[in-house]
Amino acid sequence: MRSTVRIDDDLMVALRTCAAEEGLSVTRMLNRLLRLGISALGESRESRPPLRQTTYSMGRPRLAVDKALALAAALEDEEIARKMALRK
């Protein structure tokens, strides 16, 4: 199968160098490296234990969270009033 892949210049130089050292074409070297990378990803997923997070109860909210925008507006109004009082 053919596909177009954009490879960074530094990676292409390294790919060509590795292919020349191994006596392979760039295509065969790329396929080999992709197979190695994909198999390594699969192995690392299998070897990792699932992530477990400890959760804590935060208790009941002290404020009505469904009125958060109104609370934010009220706090902002108080801050504006405070700043205006300081300027007198």
Structure notes:
Helices cover 64% and strands 0% of the residues. The chain has 88 residues and is mostly helical. It has three helices and no strands. The radius of gyration is 30 Å and the shape is elongated. Helix 1 (9-22) crosses helix 2 (26-47). The termini are far apart. It has a domain at 9-47. The model has no long low-confidence stretch (mean pLDDT 88).
Short description:
The chain is mostly helical. The chain is built from three helices and no strands.
Give the topology, please.
Layout: H1 9-22, H2 26-47, H3 68-87
Helix pairs in contact: 1-2
Distance between the termini: 76 Å
Average predicted local confidence, pLDDT: 88
Shape, principal axes of CA atoms: elongated
State Rg: 30 Å
For the sheet with most strands, the description reads:
none
Query: What percent of residues are in strands?
Result: under 5%
Structural class label:
mainly alpha
Based on the model shown, name its key terms.
mainly alpha; 64% helix; 88 residues; single chain; 0% strand; elongated; 3 helices
